[in-house]
Specification:
2 domains; globular; Rossmann fold; eight-stranded mixed beta sheet; single chain; six-stranded parallel beta sheet
């Protein structure tokens, strides 16, 4: 019999849900956790967001009904992600301390590191564990590019264990659900698909005057086409393909758009960022690539709306939130047909999907879209309509349904 859920702990050990996406280890997970938490709070559910403190431990209300708890675990200061398993037990003790005081109805772990810290607490206190992975090691390994280091065995084994022990596993797409069931060991009756939402008020088309202001604020020329690649700068996101496609476009057409890279370098990938700049210089397109760093959400929404095209050449995405945010902004998306991207981007509706990583194909499709104003405008309209199907309210309502099913009476 479904039960009422009144208080939930959402656990994100390795990155604070309040952190700015596209900085450090912050990304789509942070957007999803905060977006769903806000909607759950509107429905009367108290949400505690629990993360590892990288400074002094603190507790603060982010929104009415949503409280952030930054708790100590291990030595003070940031820790590389590969060292976080060493402090998972300490972090779990802090979760248990909060759980005894706050009397959570359930624990919802985000990412595998959070799961291995939260599962012993859930067992000890007899509370259900809901697990969202956001990315899967086996999925990343299967789609990784040449030279990318495989995910550690500890992660793969932990994900398998969590998938079999959690009362519910949440997938963002049917592609992720398939991998969870076929390769990770999750059971179909405990696996739910809940796509993320998008802030349709923030990510929306802008008037032409706003486009000009956005270009000016980022130091972009007023009359050149803009192609955006958004997200942390790391090999997985396919920035190298974007730069090579830019050079191919210049060779094909004699011109190139501005490739705007919106995101910070992931810690540990500084060498890749240097290689990327070197590649752009080697191919003669260094002046056509602009690194603008991680943008605040409102500035990112402005950039999407001002762009002619967004590209998502990632090797692997469990969903592809960037594609949805671009679509909501009225800007079509060119994406790699892999994982959840074939669900967040609909062929001929919100953009185009390519099944190849050959730069010349990407360059050709980019050129054809940029040169055809009518086609691009029509795609922008249908892209917005596609994005309007995904709201945080719908995601939260679906999640509440799962909570009610697995909750303890």
């Amino acid at each position: 019999m479904p039960v009422s859920v009144e208080r939930v702990a959402m656990i994100a050990m390795h990155t604070s849900p309040a952190a700015q996406p596209a900085t450090a280890d912050a990304g789509g997970l942070n957007v999803v956790v905060l977006g769903v938490a806000a909607e759950l709070a509107l429905r009367g559910v108290e949400v505690d967001l629990v993360t590892r403190a990288t400074g002094l431990p603190l507790q603060r209300e982010l929104l009415p009904g949503v409280t952030l708890h930054e708790v100590p675990a291990g030595e003070p200061g940031p820790l590389p992600k590969e060292r976080l398993p060493e402090v998972a037990d300490e972090f779990g003790e802090e979760i248990a301390r909060l759980a005894r005081t706050r009397n959570y109805d359930l624990l919802h772990a985000h990412y595998w590191l959070s799961g291995i810290a939260a599962l012993p607490v859930a067992i000890e206190l007899d509370r259900p564990l809901v697990q969202s992975f956001h990315t899967l090691g086996v999925m990343k390994n299967a789609l990784a590019g040449e030279g990318q280091a495989p995910e550690p065995v500890q992660r793969l084994r932990s994900e398998t264990f969590l998938a079999t022990q959690a009362e519910a596993v949440i997938a963002a797409s049917s592609a992720e659900a398939t991998v969870l069931i076929d390769d990770v060991g999750a059971t179909p009756d405990r696996t739910w698909i809940i796509p993320p939402g998008v802030d349709l008020g923030l990510f929306a088309p802008r008037p032409f005057a706003a486009h000009a202001a956005t270009r000016l604020s980022l130091g972009l020329e007023p009359d050149r086409p803009i192609v955006v690649i958004a997200g942390r700068v790391q090999p997985l996101k396919g920035h190298e393909l974007a730069v090579r496609a830019l050079a191919e476009l210049h060779a094909l057409r004699g011109w190139a758009p501005l490739l705007v890279v919106a995101g910070d370098v992931t810690p540990g990938d500084e060498g890749f960022a240097a290689q990327l700049r070197g590649l752009a210089a080697e191919l003669g397109v260094a002046a056509d690539v602009r690194f603008v760093g991680a943008l605040h959400r409102d500035a990112l929404a402005d950039l999407f709306a001002a762009a002619d095209l967004t590209i998502v050449p990632s090797f692997s995405e469990t969903f592809g939130l960037v594609g949805l945010e671009s679509a909501a902004s009225g800007t079509p998306v060119l994406a790699y047909r892999a994982g959840g991207l074939s669900e967040s981007v609909v062929e001929g509706v919100s953009g185009l999907l390519l099944g190849t990583r050959e730069p010349r194909y990407w360059a050709t499709e980019m050129a054809l879209l940029i040169e055809d104003d009518d086609r691009r405008a029509a795609l922008g309209v249908t892209a917005r309509a596609h994005a309007e199907r995904f709201t945080w309210a719908a995601a939260a309502a679906s999640l509440l349904g799962v909570y009610a099913v697995v909750g303890r009476p």
